[in-house]
Design goal:
heterodimer, A: 408 residues, alpha/beta, six-stranded mixed beta sheet, 24% helix, B: 271 residues, mainly alpha, 71% helix, globular
Chain lengths: 408, 271
């Protein structure tokens, strides 16, 4: 309990319409009076963040993510509830916030330090590191208005991490920087977490949350849809996204950005085989095999491989793994290749399906793992054709119904 | 409300340091890149001194005797100028603060910021700039009379009273603008009226008897008279009105601050 660094109780936010003088006056004079015409951006929710914990928040645009972060950061006054932050909080809420374009990078950095309670001497001691991390060279002494957006985010991020926050809020802003800088940031964030900094991380990028967070929540229309380990939450998020994009022809196109491959994996492969050869097409009454293989760089104690089948609308049709099927895989030595062949008898109705594949180590029940080393949503596609002749059923999955008829 | 328990946020000294930084930035931004730079406040004050002396003393033949200088053109000019210094700081501070919140969405919406110090920034900047005027007034008095009145050491107390008064107005103006958008526009005519109702270009004894009582309730008049007494006369201003103005200004500043806090929750939704 004492390790909770952010405690939010029952926070909600309903935006009033404040576009007239009268409405603004009413909001000030009678803030608690029920207002007509409100927009509920955030329904009451509780949230705690422990020291050193990293919480990911995902959701579509308008789901309430930014409102939630603004309330926690103390920028927005919640309609109900309270937030307590026990420590120094740094928020990268929007690119360049709190920076004055007329002043130089150096002046802005010092001002930001002052804002977070650091004295000039304390900033002097850090400035070299800030400058080195930002890597913007001589621009540090030029006005911010001459910066590119990439330089801007470099400086803002560098300042935010060097003021030693207890809680760091990052709202998508990292996506502006180039890939190398992002990697550097993630590396640095990892170090900071080891040092006890908590992280609130908002992203559209499920894989970043997956890699980076201990816990995640999915927001939709101001409600927490699901809270839990990132794998489960991201899955729900991607299902939601797929469902909405379901009618787009390229809905199943593998999204490379969502790929998670651990450094411990040397090579990996996934394919659908029909009669032993890779196939993208099958007929509904033919069996097929899902083959997943990984070659590891280090030993794994309890590795498992699995997959998930989604239909065109993103609905999970079927999911299984070596763990769920209770197949002992056992410890894997470094350099060894693990191959799993999942054979599926005729069961799918005609249509297009996508296969997400994953691998993880250290199962502890309920499909949860200590460590995911491979995750590739929509890695493989399979088109299932209507079998020749008259099918005995229709729908997504063949449930092998038996029937007995009685007449009396 | 979001409470942030922070080793920095709990200290008043931190807010003070932040205010100092903001004021420094405000002043630096104003003169950044200008050739004359910091000489500008002095240029402005001298221009005012010359123009007002010419218009009121030379053209309108207004006279105001000042101890040790007599009652010529210079004495009136200096007397008027001394009264104007405080007035200018008051007006500039309040007008600047009216848009201090609504003009900075960046600060209000995206930054954890002690907003209560923001309206004080233009107030402090204006007072600091006015110090150039005080120095000119003191120097001219010294040049004309050959004496340096020891009463000028009491100036900071009067400046504090003015600070409280201006801060109160600034809080009302900054928060009021978040509700009523016309407020910055309304300040122009408001200050025009107050300027001519306050004994600045004329002396208090010219005010009709019927209005004299009302005039004594005007804290701006009390403050400006105090400046003139300390700088030009080398005498102490009447203490009772000054005590009244000091107390009134403090209460007013507190009321303004309360009002500001009351309006604060809607800032991030209306800017």
């Amino acid at each position: 309990m004492s390790d909770d660094i952010v405690v939010a109780r029952g926070i909600s936010k309903a935006y009033r319409r404040l576009d007239s003088t009268l409405a603004r006056a009413r909001a000030v004079l009678a803030p608690d009076a029920p207002a007509r015409d409100t927009f509920v951006a955030l329904s009451p929710l509780d949230l705690t963040l422990q020291r050193g914990e990293s919480l990911g928040i995902v959701g579509r645009n308008g789901s309430g993510k930014s409102t939630l972060l603004s309330v926690i950061a103390g920028v927005l006054v919640p309609t109900t509830g309270s937030v307590e932050v026990r420590g120094r909080l740094a928020a990268l809420l929007e690119l360049g916030s709190g920076f004055d374009p007329e002043f130089t990078g150096r002046e802005n950095a010092y001002f930001n330090g002052a804002l977070h309670g650091l004295s000039r001497a304390e900033m002097d001691a850090r400035f070299e590191r800030i400058e080195a991390f930002a890597e913007i060279g001589a621009f540090i002494d030029r006005p911010l208005k001459t910066y590119s957006s990439g330089m801007f985010v470099r400086l803002a991020f560098s300042v935010a991490i060097h003021i030693d926050p207890d809680v760091l809020i990052v709202d998508e802003s990292l996506s502006v920087g180039d890939v190398f800088f992002q990697q550097k940031c993630f590396e640095r964030l990892r170090e900071m977490r080891v040092g006890g900094t908590s992280l609130l991380f908002v992203s559209h990028d499920g894989s970043a949350v997956q890699r980076f967070c201990d816990r995640a929540i999915l927001l939709d229309r101001g409600h927490v849809v699901i809270e839990g380990v990132p794998r489960v939450v991201i899955d729900a998020y991607e299902t939601q996204a797929l469902r909405e994009e379901g009618h787009r022809p390229d809905a199943h196109a593998p999204a490379e950005t969502h790929l998670v491959v651990d450094d411990d994996i040397a090579t990996w492969n996934a394919a659908i085989l029909r009669d032993g050869v890779p196939a993208a097409l099958t007929v509904g009454d033919q069996p097929f095999t899902v083959r997943i293989s990984v070659t590891t760089r280090r030993a794994f104690e309890d590795p498992h491989l699995g997959f998930k089948i989604r239909d065109r609308l993103g609905v999970v049709v079927y999911e299984c793994s070596t763990y769920s099927l209770r197949v002992p895989v056992g410890p894997l030595a470094a350099g060894e290749t693990l191959t799993a062949d999942f054979t599926i008898a005729r069961a799918l109705g005609p249509g297009e399906y996508s296969f997400s594949i994953g691998g993880a180590d250290g199962a502890y029940g309920d499909g949860l793992f200590r460590h995911a080393f491979l995750f590739f949503p929509n890695a493989v596609k399979l088109q299932v054709l209507r079998p020749a002749g008259r099918p005995g059923w229709s729908g997504i999955a063949d449930l092998h119904a038996t029937v007995s008829v009685a007449r009396s | 409300m979001t409470t942030i328990v922070d080793r920095a946020g709990t200290h008043v000294s931190w807010r003070f340091r932040l205010l100092r930084t903001l004021v420094r930035r405000d002043l630096e931004a104003r003169y950044k890149g200008a050739i004359l730079g910091w000489a500008w406040p002095i240029v402005v004050q001298i221009a005012q001194l010359l123009v007002f002396t010419y218009v009121f003393a030379t053209i309108f033949k207004m006279r105001q005797p000042v101890a040790g200088i007599g009652s010529g053109t210079l004495s009136y000019g200096l007397w008027l100028f001394t009264g104007l210094i405080g007035w200018n700081a008051l007006q500039a501070g309040v007008i600047g603060s009216a848009s201090a919140i609504t003009g900075r969405p960046n600060l209000v919406k995206r930054l954890v910021f002690p907003l209560a110090i923001v309206p004080l920034v233009p107030v402090c900047s204006a007072l600091i700039e006015s110090s150039a005027g005080f120095i000119i007034a003191i120097a001219l008095t010294f040049a004309a009379t050959g004496t340096l009145h020891p009463t000028i050491l009491l100036l900071p107390f009067v400046v504090l009273v003015q600070f409280a008064l201006t801060a109160g107005l600034a809080y009302f103006a900054a928060a009021g603008t978040a509700i009523v958008r016309d407020l910055p526009q309304a300040l122009g005519p408001f200050f025009l009226v107050v300027f001519y109702l306050t004994p600045i270009v004329y002396s208090a004894d010219r005010v009709p008897r019927a209005l004299a009582t009302l005039e004594r309730l005007n804290p701006v008049a009390v403050v400006l008279e105090a400046y003139r007494a300390l700088i030009l006369g080398g005498s102490l201003p009447p203490l009772a009105p000054l005590a009244y103005a000091a107390l009134g200004s403090l209460l007013f500043a507190y009321a303004g601050w309360r009002f500001f806090r009351r309006v604060r929750p809607i800032f991030s939704e209306v800017v």
